[in-house]
Amino acid sequence: MAKQGKRTAAARSKIDREAFYNVKDAVGLVKGNATAKFDETIEIAINLGVDPRHADQMVRGVCNLPNGTGRTIRVAVFAKDAKAEEALAAGADIVGAEDLAAKIQAGEMDFDRVIATPDMMPLVGRLGKVLGPKGMMPNPKVGTVTPNVGQAVKDAKGGAVEFRVEKAGVIHAGVGKASFSEADLAENVRAFLGAIMKAKPTGAKGTFMQRVSLCSTMGPSVKIDTSEAMAS
Fold it and tell me: How far is CA 180 from the centre of its chain?
């Protein structure tokens, strides 16, 4: 614990807790403080001026990070016949229909993302109580219900990050790994912030993006100057 305490104290000493940093400097500080023995995830937290209990203030979408997430994403696809073959050719890890639904009902969920063709949704809809709480229910708004399953699988594997605002008006997401270059991380951060702005709902009033912070899995957070981030 002493070593952990010293490491944390050293990391915090490099950060002005009251300051707002530009994206480049924030990324440099967070990456520099990611000194754990594993490749830490770089995480972003965004406080939005919305109340997601109102339908016209829900924020949801997908962002294709230009430099990927650094994670290996396992993808399950509900499809049949030619569409099943298309999904497998694109790199899907699990493809099925009733058989896949039975596995999920039995608690076998060795995947991170679920994609479905539109004709499969009556079957997938019955899994809402299982997939919904895990944030994996396919939805056309984020491109996971689509006839173009091949592209959807490639997007998921290549760095597509789904986002959905939580009850408190916060969005969390991983935007890369500590092993990424500062330039690649900064590009991912800007892409993600841009996707959030594009997803601004009609019912949002006042300041939409209120606070943004960046941290690594084990490191302290750094506040980002949102006006600079969105201007560049």
Answer: 17
Spatial contact of 52 and 58, defined as CB atoms under 8 Å apart: yes
Reported as a single tens digit per residue, the pLDDT across 87-106 is 999 999 999 999 999 999 99
> Quick one: tokens of 223?
């506040």
Print burial letters for 148-180: b (CB count within 10 Å at least 16), e (below 16): ebbebbebbbebbbbbbbeeebebebbbbbbeb
Alpha-carbon distance of 93 to 110, in angstroms, equals 9
- pLDDT, tens only, 19-46: 899 999 999 999 998 989 999 999 999 9
CA–CA distances in Å: residue 184 to residues 143, 155, 177, 199, 208: 24, 18, 10, 23, 26
Q: Which among 219, 232, 82 is positioned nearest to 150, based on CA atoms? A: 82
Can you give the pTM of this predicted structure?
Answer: 0.79
CA neighbor of 116 nearest in space, from 141, 91, 89, 140: 140
Query: Span 72-79, mean pLDDT?
Result: 95
CA 131, CA 145: separation in Å to the nearest integer? 14
CA distances (Å), 85 to each of 58, 90, 150, in order?
Answer: 35, 9, 9
CB 78 within 8 A of CB 215: no
CA distances from 56 to 48, 52, 59, 106, 199 (A): 14, 8, 9, 36, 11
Residue 118 · residue 141 · CB < 8 Å: no
